[in-house]
Amino acid sequence: MKMAGVREITAAEFLQGTTGQTLFLQRNYSIKPSNLLWGKLCNPSRMGYMSNTKGAPLRCSSRPQPKAMASGNVPTSLVNEELGLVEKPAQEVVHFYRIPLIQESANEELLKSVQTKVSNQIVGLKTEQCFNIGLASKISSEKLSTLKWILGETYEPENLATESFLVKKRQEGLNTVIVEVGPRLSFTTAWSSNAVSICQSCGLTEVTRMERSRRYLLYSKGALQEHQINEFAAMVHDRMTECVYGQRLASFGTSVAPEEVRFVPVIERGRKALEEINQEMGLAFDEQDLQYYTRLFVEDIKRNPTNVELFDMAQSNSEHSRC
After folding, report:
1. Residue 296 gets which letter from DSSP?
2. What pLDDT, on a 0 to 100 scale, did the predictor assign at position 24?
3. What pLDDT score was predicted for residue 322?
4. What does the pLDDT read at residue 38?
5. Sheet harboring 175-183: ordered strands across?
6. Chain-centroid distance, C-alpha 264
7. What is the pLDDT of residues 290-318, one digit of tens each?
C-alpha cells in the first residue's frame, strides 16, 4: 500500500478539519515485554482487522510521545524564550464578549442580595464576560477564526461576539448602568499566562496577554446614585487583586508608578521621625518597636533607614509572618 506524501498543516487547518488526516498503525514496530497490551487478534498478519473470536494474542506497541517542533515560520527567539511566553507590550487590544457569565440560579441569588444590600430599586440583572486580548501585531482572518474557536462555547458558538450583548439589552422605561470589573493591570494573572500558552500552541504567536473581565447590567426603576454603584462594585470584586474598569480597555499599560525610595531621618530627628512615618504608612509599630528600631539605626547600624526597610520590618512583625 502506498502512502500519500506527508506535509505540515497549520493549526487552523487541523482545528477546522480543512485537511484530511489519517490515523494508521505502524507495521514495523519493536515489541518489548514491558510495553505490551494483551488482547486477541484473529489474523496476526493483518493489523487492520480485529475480532473478538479466539486467535493469537494481540500485541500493541506503545508509541513515543510527540515532541514539540518549531516550524519555519516561528521566529527562533520565541523558541529560545521558553516557547515565546515572555510577555511583550501589546500594540492593540481586541475584545470578545461571551454570555452568560453565571447561571440563571446564581444570577437570581445575586439580584436578591443586591436588592437587600444596595437598593430595592434594582429590578433586574444581566451578566457577560469580556476577553481583553493584547496583540503584538495584526492577525489574519484565519488566525482570528482559530481565536474564536478557542474562546467560544462548543455547542453555543452564537454566545460569543465582538460586540457587547449587554448594550443591546437596554430596556425602555428602566434606567440601566453597566459595571465592569477585572484584574488589576499592574500584573499578569495566572489565567492569562495559561490562555496565552494555549493560543501560542495553536499558532497564535501575536497574542501577548489575555485578561478576563466581568460585566454587569443593572436595571433600576430610578437612577442609581454613585455610592450605590460603588457598593455594588464592591460586592462583585476583590479590591486587592481587581479593580473597576471605568471604560473599555484600550491598553494594558498603567500610569501607576512605584513610590520613590527615601531615607527617614532617624539619625537627625530620633524617635520622632519613626513616629511620623509609622503614622503616615500605617506600620503599626508599638512602643517596644519604636524604641528598638530607634536604637538599632542610631546606635548599632548608624545610618538612616529607608521607607522600604521600615515597611518590610512592619510585615515581618505581623502575626501571620512569624514562625
Report:
1. I
2. 37
3. 54
4. 38
5. 160-161, 92-98, 122-135, 207-220, 175-183, 242-245
6. 39
7. 999 999 999 999 999 999 999 999 988 77
Please name each of the domains of the chain with its CATH number: 27-61 (no CATH), 92-245 (no CATH), 266-321 (1.10.8.750)
Cα 94-96-100 angle, rounded to 5 deg: 155
Half-sphere exposure of 39 (CA within 13 A, CB side): 14
Secondary structure of residue 7 in the 3-state scheme: coil
Q: Which of 189, 148, 128, 159 is nearest to 16 (CA)?
A: 148
> What pLDDT was estimated at residue 60?
39
pLDDT value for 315? 87
Q: Which residues of the chain have pLDDT under 70?
A: 1-90, 319-323
Selection from 143, 160, 141, 161 nearest residue 152 by Cα: 160
Those residues with Cβ within 8 angstroms of residue 25's Cβ, 6 or more apart along the chain or in another chain: 47, 48
Q: Which backbone phi and psi does 120 adopt, to 5 degrees?
A: -80, 0
Q: Bridge partners of 37?
A: 60
Grid coordinates of 303? 545610618
Query: Which residue, among 37, 10, 8, has the nearest Cα to 25 in the 3D structure?
Result: 37
Question: What's the CA dihedral at 298, 302, 304, 309 to 10 degrees?
Answer: -90
Burial label for 210, CB within 10 Å (0-12, 13-18, 19+), is buried
Q: Which runs of consecutive H residues, i.e. helices, occur in 124-186?
A: 141-151
